[in-house]
Automatic annotation (TrEMBL):
Protein name: CarD family transcriptional regulator
SUPFAM superfamilies: CarD-like (SSF141259)
Pfam families per record: CarD_TRCF_RID
Organism: Candidatus Lachnoclostridium stercoripullorum
Listed transmembrane segments: none
Sequence ranges assigned to domain CarD-like/TRCF RNAP-interacting in this UniProt record: 1-110
InterPro entries hit by this protein: CarD-like/TRCF_RID, CarD-like/TRCF_RID_sf, CarD-like_C
Length: 167
């Protein structure tokens, strides 16, 4: 169980700080159940309440600095998402996002960026879905890496490019 003050990754809310652990005083909440009160670090004015024993939402610690650096160092070799049925592409993106795994977000970003390059080579723009999903994946990934590497979120992309030697 996490404690007040811990920084965690929580489902589709990204990086959150645990503000409180305990029962909720709401009339609709089960008074015998413990809840996390979470403050998403990158969603202004947002608060999340979730049961401590919630099995439907991924709640995990933020990766360590060492894990973040290993992840970044492996970006060039990371595989793209295996999308075999183009009609299920968005479903694959949603699955990667819901996993809350940094490795899956890297794969997703690589997949979408490769699709963008391929479409651009044929004179086509990126699809709205690809643009939307790459933004979400980058927001979640860069938010977590910012905490792990003690950077501002808007510095992470440049840090990654410099570390892997990409222009």
């Amino acid at each position: 169980m996490f404690q007040a003050g811990d920084v965690i990754v929580c489902g589709t809310h990204g990086v959150c700080r645990v503000e409180k652990v305990g029962p909720l005083s709401s009339a609709v909440a089960d008074r015998d159940r413990l809840y996390y009160t979470l403050k998403p670090l990158y969603e202004r004015g947002s608060v999340v309440f979730t049961p401590v024993d919630n099995e439907k939402m991924v709640i995990r610690p933020v990766i360590s600095r060492e894990e973040a650096l290993r992840l970044i160092d492996g970006i060039r070799d990371a595989e793209a998402l295996g999308i075999e049925d183009e009609r299920k592409r968005e479903e694959n993106y949603k699955t990667a996002l819901k996993s809350c795994r940094a490795e899956e977000l890297v794969k997703m970003i690589k997949t979408i960026n490769a699709r963008k390059r391929s479409r651009a080579a044929r004179g086509k723009k990126a699809t709205d879905a690809d643009s939307r999903y790459v933004k979400l994946a980058e927001d979640y990934l860069y938010g977590e890496l910012a905490i792990s590497l003690d950077l501002e979120r808007d510095q992470v992309k440049a840090f990654i490019r410099e570390r892997i030697g990409e222009e």
